């Protein structure tokens, strides 16, 4: 608001100043033009008496003296065809003046002043002088600079006054913005003052009510996260006991490993929810080694790839490759991408995973040898959007992970015609 008020006042002042300064600038130019023309005309007319009465010798001396003392070159065209004074050609204006008409005409280099006068021989002589563009503009540029400086000074003064006025008007808004930033940073005890004008007091009351409601919702989320942990503990324990009771040791170990992975995933989800709902101020800088995390998830899914007779090709750069994302989020991103391949392609369809560093990002690419993305799939990166009958959350998980790190996700076609997902993860400092 403060900036808008300042811009509005400044724009209004500029319009007013321009409306006044442009006519003044044109007036200054007109005055200088008229002054130069009048001076040249007076200089030419001062020779009329000499041209009318003096002989050629006296006239020549008078013209030379006029050219020596004056600012403008003077030429006298006599009726007998002779020419005295500064060199000049017989222009159309001179020929017109020989018929008894004095005039001033604009030329390419300035202006031409011609004065018609009868000479001593009884013919019609012409006194011609030329005013250059420099003489016409003498003093104009200085006047324009003064006007421009005055305009800038007025605009600066108006901006200063508008800023002082706007500061008082938006002080309460700035305090409300500060409270909202403190709330966004996790300081849920922050409250807005109510000692303000009625409109601002209503906004502050609403903001305080919102802060209280946020605290209540976060408390409910923490309670539900704890409740989720307790509810899943019993079925996970039962599933683990069933896995350990299998007669085949290898099968029992494999199923037990899956149960432990599920238990760790649930624990990560609960920890993440509690971390995001904590009331501590400030943000914790997250980062992890993308090389180690992706290698671990690829090793996990390689077992399933072997069971489903899929070729898993990997090109993973050596670490460390630090990215601005937590290990849990990057693992969930990799699981979502690899899981999509298993979920949406038939057994035996190959896949490839590559991880390589870029300029400012680390690029994770997952290809498959399947049919690619459905033609009707207009927005697979949107949450819940899918053209394959799934929940549509896999690519959204990858998109959110990439966005949180400062990168992004692109969809493309793999070299073999299948689907390609390119995840660009922002580098960590």
UniProtKB/TrEMBL annotation:
A matching Pfam family: HAMP
SMART domains cross-referenced by the UniProt entry: HAMP, HATPase_c
Indicate the principal place this protein occupies in or around the cell: membrane
Listed GO MF terms: kinase activity
Q: Which reaction does it catalyse?
A: ATP + protein L-histidine = ADP + protein N-phospho-L-histidine
> Which parts pass through the membrane?
143-162
Q: Where is this region: Disordered?
A: 372-392
Report the residue ranges that make up the Histidine kinase domain in this protein. Answer: 227-429
> Which stretch is the leader sequence?
none
- Annotated Gene3D superfamilies: 1.10.287.130, Histidine kinase-like ATPase, C-terminal domain (3.30.565.10)
Q: Top-level EC class, please?
A: transferase
**Stated name of the protein:** Signal transduction histidine-protein kinase/phosphatase MprB
Q: Any idea where this protein resides?
A: Cell membrane
Q: Which UniProt keywords apply?
A: ATP-binding, Cell membrane, Hydrolase, Kinase, Magnesium, Manganese, Membrane, Nucleotide-binding, Phosphoprotein, Protein phosphatase, Stress response, Transferase, Transmembrane, Transmembrane helix, Two-component regulatory system, Virulence
Membrane topology summary: Multi-pass membrane protein
Q: Which SUPFAM superfamilies match?
A: ATPase domain of HSP90 chaperone/DNA topoisomerase II/histidine kinase, Homodimeric domain of signal transducing histidine kinase
Q: Which InterPro entries match?
A: 2C_sensor_his_kinase, HAMP_dom, HATPase_C_sf, HATPase_dom, His_kinase_dom, HisK_dim/P_dom, HisK_dim/P_sf, Sig_transdc_His_kin-like_C
EC?
Answer: 2.7.13.3
Q: Which PANTHER family match?
A: SENSOR PROTEIN CREC (PTHR44936:SF9)
Q: Which cofactor does it need?
A: Mg(2+); Mn(2+)
In this chain the HAMP domain maps to 167-219
């Amino acid at each position: 608001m403060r900036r808008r008020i300042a811009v509005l006042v400044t724009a209004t002042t500029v319009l007013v100043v321009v409306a006044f300064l442009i006519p003044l600038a044109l007036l200054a130019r007109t005055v200088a033009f008229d002054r130069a023309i009048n001076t040249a005309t007076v200089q030419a007319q001062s020779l009329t008496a000499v041209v009318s009465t003096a002989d050629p010798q006296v006239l020549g001396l008078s013209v030379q003296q006029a050219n020596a003392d004056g600012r403008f070159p003077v030429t006298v065209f006599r009726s007998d065809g002779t020419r005295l004074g500064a060199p000049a050609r017989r222009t159309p204006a001179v020929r017109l003046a020989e018929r008894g008409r004095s005039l001033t005409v604009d030329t390419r280099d300035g202006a031409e002043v011609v004065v018609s006068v009868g000479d001593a021989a009884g013919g019609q002589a012409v006194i011609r002088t030329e005013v250059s563009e420099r003489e016409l503009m003498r003093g104009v540029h200085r006047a324009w600079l003064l006007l421009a400086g005055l305009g800038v000074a007025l605009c600066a003064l108006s901006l200063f006054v508008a800023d002082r006025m706007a500061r008082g008007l938006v002080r309460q808004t700035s305090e409300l913005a500060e409270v909202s930033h403190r709330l966004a940073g996790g300081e849920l005890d922050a409250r807005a003052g109510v000692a303000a004008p009625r409109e601002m007091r209503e906004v502050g009351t609403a903001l305080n009510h919102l802060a209280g409601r946020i605290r209540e919702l976060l408390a409910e989320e923490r309670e539900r996260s704890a409740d989720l942990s307790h509810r899943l503990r019993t079925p996970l324990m039962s599933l683990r006991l069933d896995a350990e009771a299998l007669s085949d040791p290898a099968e029992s170990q494999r199923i037990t490993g899956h149960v432990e992975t599920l238990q760790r995933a649930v624990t990560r989800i609960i920890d993440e929810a509690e971390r995001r709902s904590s009331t501590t101020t400030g943000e914790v800088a997250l980062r992890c080694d993308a090389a180690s995390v992706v290698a671990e998830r690829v090793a996990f899914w390689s077992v399933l790839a072997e069971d489903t007779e899929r070729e898993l090709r990997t090109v993973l750069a050596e670490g460390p490759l630090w990215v601005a994302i937590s290990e849990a989020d990057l693992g969930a991103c990799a699981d979502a991408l690899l899981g999509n391949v298993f979920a949406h392609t038939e057994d035996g369809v190959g896949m490839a995973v590559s991880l390589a560093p870029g300029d400012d990002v680390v690029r994770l690419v997952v290809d498959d040898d399947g049919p690619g993305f459905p033609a009707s799939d207009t927005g697979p990166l949107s949450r819940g959007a899918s053209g394959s009958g799934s929940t549509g959350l896999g690519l959204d998980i990858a998109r959110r992970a990439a966005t949180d790190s400062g990168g992004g996700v692109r969809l493309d076609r793999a070299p073999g015609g299948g689907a390609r997902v390119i995840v660009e993860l922002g580098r960590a400092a």
